[in-house]
């Protein structure tokens, strides 16, 4: 009997853990690391087997609730990497992942236990119960795929507006991802030039601060108002060969949550020309 749990039960747990880890990574856009995921899922599956055998032998001293929380923490902690930032702390990230993982557990394992309990009471075919189970299964699958469909759709729309480019300033070159955003309509009040948004990390890596004095450009938005530290960049070369030259870039602490985008184009730059305008700053 114990060999069954040591083999078959471990395999089932390992596969289920892989699905749950993938589900959280898909929804939360986590980095994919197959080897790390496999190790994490294998370790947690082994812990599940040990706990199950101890329960069968009536030697378990760990409450089921504490065991469940421990397994969730182990699965999340071993599967993903966490870095603190100014917007969200590591604790917030872990708690968010835990909630999503527990939601996945309740959908999968919870439904299996629910059906197992009720199916065991059925001594003969019951069309009504079978129909209800089908409706419940359909509703759960529909909700799950609806969420995934919206996530994929949003990612696809984002990919259509993201372009790969090479930022050049002096002898420094850097490959960046550029996002065209209709919400960026910032213009310089001095020369009426469009102002793009560039991440602070990119500006530091390009060494622009060591070569130029910043231009302070005022801005007003829903989030507030103030002055943006702005610099002039020499050239931006896109993958299709189009070039934007001698343009302004305002510094932003963080452009997006994931850090995938390093620059946001001004809304007037939808059609990028070979020769950019020359400013007077």
Can you walk me through this structure?
With 281 residues, the protein is an alpha+beta fold. The chain is built from six helices and seven strands. The protein has helices at residues 2-28, 34-56, 64-79, 90-120, 127-160, 200-206; strands at residues 162-169, 172-180, 195-199, 215-221, 224-238, 243-252, 263-265. A six-stranded mixed beta barrel has the order 1-2-7-3-6-5. The longest helix has 34 residues, at 127-160.
Question: Gyration radius, to the nearest Å?
Answer: 27 Å
The largest sheet, given as strand count, sense and whether it forms a barrel, is:
6 strands, mixed, barrel
Shape: elongated
DSSP, total strands: 7
Portion in beta strands: 15-25%
Number of helices: 6
Query: What's the order of the H and E elements?
Result: HHHHHEEEHEEEE
- Give the mean pLDDT: 78
The poorly predicted ranges are 271-280
Structural class: alpha+beta
Strand order, main sheet: write it out.
Answer: 1-2-7-3-6-5
Organism: Butyribacter intestini
Protein name: Sigma-E processing peptidase SpoIIGA
GO molecular function: aspartic-type endopeptidase activity
Keywords: Membrane, Transmembrane, Transmembrane helix
């Amino acid at each position: 009997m114990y060999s069954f749990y040591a083999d078959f039960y471990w395999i089932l747990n390992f596969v289920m853990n892989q699905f749950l880890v993938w589900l959280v990574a898909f929804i939360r856009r986590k980095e994919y690391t197959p080897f790390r995921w496999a190790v994490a899922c294998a370790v947690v599956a082994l812990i599940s087997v040990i706990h199950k055998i101890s329960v069968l032998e009536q030697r378990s001293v760990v409450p089921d609730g504490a065991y469940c929380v421990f397994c969730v923490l182990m699965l999340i902690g071993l599967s993903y990497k966490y870095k603190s930032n100014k917007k969200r702390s590591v604790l917030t990230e872990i708690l968010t992942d835990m909630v999503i993982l527990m939601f996945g557990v309740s959908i999968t394992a919870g439904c299996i236990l629910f059906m197992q309990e009720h199916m065991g009471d059925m001594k003969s075919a019951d069309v009504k119960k079978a129909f209800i189970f089908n409706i419940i299964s359909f509703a759960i699958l529909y909700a799950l795929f609806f969420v995934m469909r919206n996530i994929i759709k949003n990612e696809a729309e984002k990919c259509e507006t993201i372009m790969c480019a090479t930022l050049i300033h002096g002898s420094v070159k850097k490959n960046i991802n550029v996002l065209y955003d209709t919400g960026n309509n910032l213009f310089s009040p001095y020369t009426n030039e469009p102002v793009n948004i560039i991440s602070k990390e990119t500006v530091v890596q390009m060494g622009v601060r060591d070569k130029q004095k910043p231009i302070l450009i005022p801005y007003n938005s829903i989030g507030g108002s103030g002055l943006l530290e702005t610099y002039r960049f020499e050239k931006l070369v896109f993958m299709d060969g189009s070039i934007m030259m001698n343009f302004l870039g305002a510094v932003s602490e963080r452009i997006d949550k994931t850090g995938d985008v390093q620059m946001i184009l001004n809304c007037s730059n939808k059609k990028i020309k070979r020769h950019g305008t020359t400013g007077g700053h």
